Amino acid sequence: MTLIIAGTVRLPPENLDAFRPHMDAMLTASRAEDGCLTYSYAVDVQDSGLIRVFEAWRDQAAIDAHFQAAHMVAWRASWPALGVSARRLSLYEVASEREL
Questions:
Q1: What is the b/e burial string over 36-55, where b = at least 16 CB atoms within 10 angstroms of the residue's CB?
Q2: Most buried of 6, 37, 53, 99, CB within 10 angstroms?
Q3: How far apart are CA 84 and CA 86, in angstroms?
């Protein structure tokens, strides 16, 4: 069963350019992890301080390993200086999938 993590994080829009290298490093490291199917961030078109998060994982063990990864520690350590806040993520268990 695929697991989806989706949600948002917020930061002051003026810090977005400084945050981009941290997002890029997180994307590169996370996408290389065993069990990562999809990992992406997107800046909301109408709210440049809102980052949309979408992840797909093979199973809970892959997510657990992801949360313990060194790049996750570095990622969260970058947040205070850049004003990252309002992390709102949810986990979804996908029983089936079909193209639209």
A1: beebebebeeeeebbbebeb
A2: 53
A3: 7
Q: Number of C-alpha atoms within 13 angstroms, CB side, residue 10? A: 5
pTM to 2 decimal places = 0.93
Around Cβ 57, how many Cβ atoms within 10 Å?
Answer: 23
Query: What are the average pLDDT values for consecutive 10-residue runs of the chain, which has 100 residues?
Result: 96 97 97 98 97 98 97 94 96 94
Phi, psi of 97 (to 5 degrees): -150, 145
Q: In the structure encoding, which two tokens stand for residue 38, read together?
A: 């999809």
Q: What pLDDT is recorded for position 1? A: 86
Q: Give me the pLDDT at residue 45, please.
A: 97
Domain 2-94 top-level CATH class: alpha beta
- Are the CB atoms for 76 and 88 separated by under 8 Å? no
